[in-house]
């Protein structure tokens, strides 16, 4: 599936649209958003409830479906209330499709600016910090990877890079210092919280006083 043949609400299979309308009511408007992933990503406006909808065929290879499954799992253990993130309202597997329906952030929200001197930067840092303070909901162990597992993987990758000839890295000393500063012991000392795995401008919305 390419960007040009990515489905819209109107081209989704009938059984998928029926499953969505069972929960949201009749869909009166849809707005597709840009996404690097396959499947549908759209703001859905309906008679009973609005939602940010993601829908993807389960026939795709595991490496394509993995980000959707990981997002579903992480959102299921998102601390609530208190987490600065859209709530996963419901999820369903219908036929050969996976459907994720998130709380819709209203139209007044905007993407943040991440230039070093921009006033949005402290807001983003504060939102990420708040997420790090909120403990995961119970039941996450064995379902979503811990931060320690992610850090171990990063350290293994970094060490393999550092083992290469110096010309392969622009600043080997910078990489080496970064590896030295990683502390798995510190990660194990606190309560289990979620970490954001893809911090970028297109993943952060801001409205009024809430990010």
Q: How would you describe the overall organization of this protein?
A:
With 211 residues, the protein is an alpha+beta fold. The chain contains 6 helices and 7 strands, in the order H-E-E-E-H-E-E-E-H-H-H-H-E. The chain has helices at residues 14-24, 62-76, 120-133, 147-162, 172-181, 184-189; strands spanning 27-32, 40-46, 51-57, 88-94, 97-102, 110-111, 205-206. The model has no long low-confidence stretch (mean pLDDT 80). This is Aminoglycoside phosphotransferase domain-containing protein. InterPro entries: Kinase-like_dom_sf.
Task: Describe the structure in brief.
The chain has 6 helices and 7 strands. The chain has 211 residues and is of the alpha+beta class.
Helix content: 25-40%
For the record, give the distance between the C-alpha atoms at the N and C termini, rounded to a whole number: 32 Å
Task: Give the amount of beta strand, in percent.
Answer: 15-25%
Number of helical regions: 6
**Which spans of ≥5 residues are poorly predicted at pLDDT below 50?**
none
> What is the alpha-carbon Rg in Å?
20 Å
Shape: globular
Look at the helices and sheets and give the structural class.
alpha+beta
Overall pLDDT, averaged? 80
Instruction: Say how many strands there are.
Output: 7
**Largest sheet features:** 5 strands, antiparallel
Q: In total, how many domains does the architecture comprise?
A: 2
The succession of helices and strands, N to C, reads HEEEHEEEHHHHE
Adjacency order of strands in the biggest sheet: 1-2-3-5-4
InterPro entries: Kinase-like_dom_sf (IPR011009)
Organism: Nonomuraea maheshkhaliensis
Protein name: Aminoglycoside phosphotransferase domain-containing protein
